[in-house]
Design a protein that fits this description.
Layout: H1 2-18, E1 20-21, E2 26-27, H2 33-42, H3 47-52, E3 61-71, H4 74-87, E4 90-100, E5 103-113, H5 117-127, E6 129-139, H6 141-165, H7 170-202, E7 203-212, H8 221-275
Parallel strand pairs: 3-7
Antiparallel strand pairs: 1-2, 3-6, 4-5, 5-7
Length: 276
């Protein structure tokens, strides 16, 4: 019995030491390949066959879309966006709306079901003018497959340990319970990683920037001439108004200068008159 417990503790320790986590989950490490093959043989599984078939697996792709749209009517475009989200199993994860004058711009973080992504993009780009679109993809097929494989191994080990507990002595039960906790902890971590994988695969993240712009119309020659003349009149009015305000502002200074000048002239005149 102790040999069996020692075997499971050794295998689990190797998994903990050599198992490594990549950006999204766990990855296969050949440093414990012998132990894993031995365990698989006991389960009547073939590791070589599994990895030989990896090219035949359905590809697990994570996508990210970045695009920017210009529109003449922000409110109307917002209605179009919300309708498209409802139609294609999408949602707004985050939004940031900014006002500049009477115009509006917004940044949206969206989650859209991947199988509906192309139809969704076509719908939201019809209403406004597409200014930018970029798409990035990441193939996580191997990482996803490794996570599932390790989960199956840990589940089988955990089931076997639970079977051994029923026939174990008191001291052996303590060791087996510690091993059970270790295996359950690793399983929880793997389940979190797989849940994250599935969410990122099933729903694509879309970063959308929407900017409202003014509508400019091409004027005729007569309209251009009239507008230019009107602007000139307005400019003349502005200049005249500015000059008038400057004159009003100078009145107090002119009064002071006049009083001082008059006083000086009066003194000079009085002095000359007294000499005569």
């Amino acid at each position: 019995m102790k040999k069996i417990i020692y075997l499971f503790l050794s295998v689990t320790s190797l998994l903990l030491i050599t198992g490594c986590v990549d950006n999204y989950g766990y990855s296969y490490d050949s440093s414990y390949e012998y132990d894993e093959i031995e365990f698989r043989e006991k389960m009547a599984l073939s590791l070589d066959q599994e990895y030989a078939d990896i090219d035949n697996l359905d590809r697990n792709i994570i996508q990210r879309i970045d695009l920017s749209i210009e529109t003449l009517d922000y409110d109307k475009y917002r209605e179009t966006l919300e309708t498209a989200l409802d139609s294609h199993d999408g949602s707004i994860e985050n939004s940031d709306e900014n006002h500049y004058g009477y115009l509006i711009s917004s940044n949206f973080t969206l989650r859209v079901k991947t199988e509906n992504l192309e139809a969704f993009l076509e719908e939201i780009t019809e209403e406004g003018e597409l200014m930018h679109l970029s798409r990035t993809t990441e193939d996580i097929t191997i990482s996803h497959s490794n996570a599932i494989t390790q989960k199956e191994i840990l589940e089988a080990k955990l089931a076997r340990v639970l079977e051994l507990i029923s026939d174990a002595t008191t001291s052996e039960i303590i060791e087996l319970e510690q091993l059970t906790i270790q295996l359950q902890t690793e399983l929880r971590q793997l389940n979190i990683a797989l849940t994250s994988y599935d969410s990122l695969i099933e729903y694509t993240r879309v970063e959308l920037y929407v900017r409202e712009i003014e509508q400019f119309e091409e004027n005729t020659l007569w309209e251009k001439t009239t507008n230019t003349f009107s602007k000139s009149i307005e400019s003349v009015g502005v200049v005249a108004e500015s000059l008038f305000l400057v004159m009003i502002a100078l009145i107090p200074y002119a009064a002071i200068v006049g009083i001082i000048t008059g006083t000086i002239v009066y003194i000079i005149y009085a002095t000359k008159k007294s000499k005569k």
